[in-house]
Amino acid sequence: MKRLISWLFVSVMGLALMAFSYYKYQYEPGENPWDNVFMYIGAGDPNCELEGLEYTRRPVRLLPLPGRAQSFTQIAKSFGAHVERSYRLAFQEKVILYSDISVDFTSDMLDWGQLPASGMDEVLAGFSTSSRDQITVDGRVLKVTGQLKKGVSVFANSYLIGESASARELFGPDEEVVQDAYILRLPKEQLEDSEIGEQLKGAFPKPRFTAYMPLIRTPPAAFAIYIGGLALLLVGGCLALFELYCILADRIRNKWLRLPLAEIRKYKHLFIAMNLIYFGTVLLFMLLAYAVPELQSCFLVGVSSQIEEGSGILGIAGEAYMSRNILRAAVTTFAINFPFGSLLCITLPSIIIPGAGVLVVGLRATLWGLILAPSFSELSSMMVPHSVTLLFEGHGYVIAAFFGVLVLVYLFRKSEGPNVGIRYGRALLMNVRGNLLVIIVLVIAAVYEATEVILMMLYAGR
């Protein structure tokens, strides 16, 4: 029991470290006039008027895609043409003609510098732009006079230039790189209205328009602290669960649960090693995702597109979560995670080819690391509560893979039966019993995930 409490303490400290990293380095409290502002980019007029919605139309010039980002466009394109466009917009810096800079922006919105002077070749840089000195657009040098704070996130990788005759020359109608930016401001309560969402889709249809949300990078120090905390949470959590299983193995009378718990204790080194390898792989690929944000962005845009379009498994899950019904979301999550994610993809392959399910588990750990890495501020805030889902759901898959590997162990361990046929039969039965434990863990994961995700959606006004 002492070891269980000790490992629980380690996991709680890890979660606290993650929260500290986010709230210390990235969280910006207080009201922000640029909250709930977003942008559509495309060509031409919207399909219909947006009744009751405020928006501003601005000419935008898309700057060339950086070289490293360009090399990942084929991966984004493999998810679909619209995903490729969303990916490009995420990394293309932009120059936006903003005629009333001095009206909409004040000096307290700046990290440094001052607003551009009227009629001059000067621009105001967003928080995530690459240049702090000057940029060259179509052979013209534009001086950067100041930088917006992170809270003005809709312009994070954009440069704003004031109205002038010379500035207008950069936004000629015959230029392919010149499009329209529709900047919309919605009250928080309207973001929860499904009718508003449908109205926006109708007004700005794909592929002519693309919703644009900037990606703001997590600072290196904050990311290092965050990953350290996540490692403590995952290691402490899975070892605490192992200690719990050892305790329950002596106390539970029902053999359908007692026997798989006893096997976990019997092959404890294998079980612990598989947990550490799984979560170690997740953390390793999170480091890779942070080092190569373009790669992570490809997957993020692809996942978001599938959820938004309601296609595939993610689309089904997305509809359940958008209903804001915790029970429906939990049932849907479990229905995806256990029959498909565990039984079909891990247990069944391991029975056919002993232990083969570990390959699927390894691929899943890789994708989790690439998609869920807290490389961007929005993901950092989400992953503080969602890391507990990561722990339970990942641990459930590891349990399924562990019993799949036991098929291989039983076949070569004569102490498990007098011949190969009997040992294989016992391994199958143990997998059936082991999946009862998988069910329990994945039910806990599904209920927690449905609760925390829907509560976060309601808090964010989505």
Word description of this protein:
By secondary structure, this protein is an alpha+beta fold. It has two domains: 2-23 and 218-460, no CATH class; 37-212, no CATH class. 61% of the residues lie in helices and 12% in strands. It has helices spanning 2-25, 67-70, 73-78, 81-91, 101-104, 165-168, 188-191, 194-203, 220-249, 255-266, 268-291, 293-309, 312-322, 326-352, 357-372, 377-412, 420-460, and strands spanning 37-42, 54-62, 94-97, 110-113, 122-125, 134-137, 140-148, 158-161, 178-185, 209-212. Strands 1, 2, 3, 4, 5, 6, 7, 8, 9 and 10 form a ten-stranded mixed β-sheet that branches. Strand 6 (134-137) and strand 7 (140-148) form a beta hairpin. Helix 13 runs antiparallel to helix 14. 38% of the residues are buried. The model has no long low-confidence stretch (mean pLDDT 89).
